[in-house]
Amino acid sequence: MAEASAGRTDNPLKRLAGCGQAPWLDFISRDFIASGDLYKLVQEDGITGVTSNPAIFEKAIGQGEEYAPEIARLLQEDKLLRREQIYERLAIEDIRGACEVLKPVYEATSGRDGYVSFEVSPFLAHDSWETEQEAHRLWEAVDRPNLMIKLPATDVGVEETKTLTAQGINVNVTLLFSVATYARVLEAYLRGLEQRVARGKDIRQVAGVASFFISRIDSAVDGEIDRRLAEGDPDSAALKALRGKVAVACGVLAYAHLQEVLASPRWAALAAKGAQPQRLLWASTSTKDKAYSDTKYVEALIGPHTVDTLPPATLAAFRDHGTVRQSLPGDVEAARAVIAEAERLGLDLPKMSEKLLAEGCTAFEKAFETLLDAVEARRMEVLGISEPIAPKLISCKAAYPLWVEETASCCYFTPECEDDELIQRIWARDPKVWTGGKEGEWLGWLSAPRDGLEHIKQYEDFARDVKAGGYTDVLLLGMGGSSLGPEVLKEVFGHVPGWPELHVLDSTDPEQVAEMAAKVDLAKTLFIVSSKSGSTLEPNILFAYFWAAAEKALGKAPGAHFVAVTDPNSSMEKTAKEHGFGHIFFGNAQIGGRYSVLSPFGMVPAAAAGYNVRGLLENALLMADQCNPEDAWDALSLGKGLGCVGSGSSSNKVTFVGSGKLAAVGPWLEQLLAESTGKQGKALIPIIGEAPGAPDKYGEDRFFIDLRMAGETQDPKLKALLEVMDYSLAPDWVDEKYPGYEIQMDNLLQLGQVFYLFEFATAVAAAMMEINPFDQPDVEASKVETRKLLSTYEQTGKLPPEEPFAVDGDLAFYADPRNAEALKKAAGGRTDAVSLLKAQLERVKPGDYVGLLAYIARTPGHIAWAQEVRHMLRDGLHVATAAEFGPRFLHSTGQAYKGGPNTGVFLQVTSDKAKDLEIPGHPYTFGVVQAAQARGDFDVLAARDRRALRVHIRGPLEEGLKKLSQALQIALKEADHVRGS
Ligand SMILES: O=C(CO)[C@@H](O)[C@H](O)[C@H](O)[C@H](O)COP(=O)(O)O
Ligand SMILES: O=C[C@H](O)COP(=O)(O)O
Fold this sequence. Notes:
The protein is an alpha/beta fold and 981 residues long. It is built from 39 helices and 24 strands. Helices cover 50% and strands 13% of the residues. Residues 479-482, 531-533, 536, 539, 593-594, 891 line the site of glyceraldehyde-3-phosphate.
């Protein structure tokens, strides 16, 4: 600020008061208040008020480092603060600080001066209810009598001026560009006062100003004049003469109107009751056209009952060389003549003022958004959160731009439900978004990140306990939704030095269970038994097994080494209490298993393993915030892409490619998509773990999701595949051309965002598919069949007998009569393995998928075997393939295989168990349970008319697997597909 005449006992600024004008400062900032500079201006230069607006706060808070320490401090106190709250706290603090500095002025003038203005959010400019609420909220939050709440002069703002004035709130109405609007604003103020009087309230302490923007009027008019001059307008001389005159003329006429009103009997009545006039405040007083004097607008409009708010540079200029002369009321007739001349010359002032108001609102909105973005960037920096991830469409030859264009604007829901309305309705928990059933009761996941952060202390305390417990391992026992999220976390974040290593067991295979028991140090293992319902068979029998094992290893009741994660009032809670578990964590009963990773089901194991729970939840919250109706484009776009391919299209093989550790997201995503959408004959069929292959091995039914770290190049095979794939010739339905999305992460904590993004997108997809994404009827069906078989076992000591319909050496073939007959017939009566497998493979048609369902231990060797077989089948049959292990997939893709479209061809693999394991307290073994699960699964597949065949390996498993893959290889070579190609 220029200091030329600062500190002089007398200077032009100080002399303004003598003309009845109050000079205010059009600026605010923390340092400016803290350094005493504002105080000095008040003391030495006679400044008697302060105005702020979103642009001013943007300059103060949004630019530079001034507020960085304060933002960090606020976040240290409360890490859950969002950007709007941070801004508000900062702004309120500044406004209060300025109010304090100006309090002596306020008191000395008995409330006639000494005000500080604080503007309501510019986004509320057209909403009356919200404006009023916000005005009250800010008024109460600042809690200073010399505050003025600032509203824009929109219709809503004018109306609210009356209401708020009547309620005793001081109002500054801003963005005035015409005398007509000013008259309405003054009228609103008078009416507000009158209403207040009518209610018997005191009006002496109610103040108001009407902010008339001066220089912007000249900028608009002069701009139009210049445009016409450049075009060689015939009125050029008259137009030129009008340059720089209209703004002051408007000001003079506005002032004339004020005087008229102040001279009226109506005002006299109010004045008698102690009313203060609503002062005219000249805003936008800096000169924009360098050809004019830098004090032009101040000098032209000096008079009683006015305020002039000066930005620092104008203030310094006026203090330095301003001329003080009471220029108001001015030459009113001359001012009228200027306006008349403008009209004669075709300058449409009313239209210009409307435009200026609209532009003013937009500019404040922009400034506010920039300010909030700056605060958000700082918040993220302090909390160590990175940018929101954004799924990008994977472009595929010519087809994609067309798709983007079509879907960007199109609405896939109902004619009454546009995209943003859909998002609003999801947040409003409206079940009609889906099927109008019970969906509203399953939306607890929407707020899981925030809920988790609110309970962060419980995770942090637990983590501390676990660390102090000296455990070497954490073993999570659970299935599906209770195990797949923790498994992703384990694979991605690994073993953190100084913390126990996390393991996840979701199998009933005796070999796999025994292997896990041998792998961990049972005496130093913390067991997390995880089951939402508490009634799931697998976690219960795994608990029975490991409880006994731990008891043996510890030589005492091991309760302290056990943790339960379950929904309130479940049988698991009862078990945990009876057994004296060290901790019991409760899930939210409004979150289904596959949506539970951000709830205690994912966060408890994460905390135990020393992972950054806060960081994950912060990232998830960031994505949740992104999924609001205004910003949800990314989740919406992904969801719509998925919804389109899931709505009856054959391009529903959602092929997930995750680079490096991110491949581990596959099984979690697989469950989310398959269980949520695979029902009523519709489904997204997830294909995970399939390595990208040569383009000619694919059908036209893929939708890719490529997840990788930023900077990593796309898998070259996938890249080549996408370049070659061209669905542009797909029939009628343009949506069949989607190749998919790619998502890049900057850091691993963004996994929190990935989880939330896919949860939200899946809910959107299900809305398009018109299904309930939160039930899993066909998973239940398998469980029922398994229970029946096990109860037979309990009664008879055996599973019901069954006969293979064919045997070839160590390979025995089982199926229901329909499938067995069809296969035997297709094999021409031959019952050797190659003929039967060939018959099964020949049932595969383009657009189908093959599911290899192996009820064997999920060991690295067996995974490699399954992968080899599935790639061989993919390449030979040109269809999507899934390689799954039972019973794990029953809690996941099993739903879609049974409830989705009948496009799956299944090869179930079971085996004799070389070594079985007893389950303490149960009549059956793990081997029996797994066998019953395979049979229950098959029964339901058969009941749903699926093309299914079971191969049972007798004798040594590895040899059997080898024989099976050899037989498949031959069968494939002989199968029609290959022969015909
Ligand atoms: O509070 C007010 C008016 O009440 C002021 O802060 C007002 O917003 C500013 O004077 C203007 O925004 C500045 O306008 P301009 O100089 O950028 O045209
Ligand atoms: O996906 C969920 C699984 O079926 C396990 O359910 P649960 O957590 O109730 O044991």
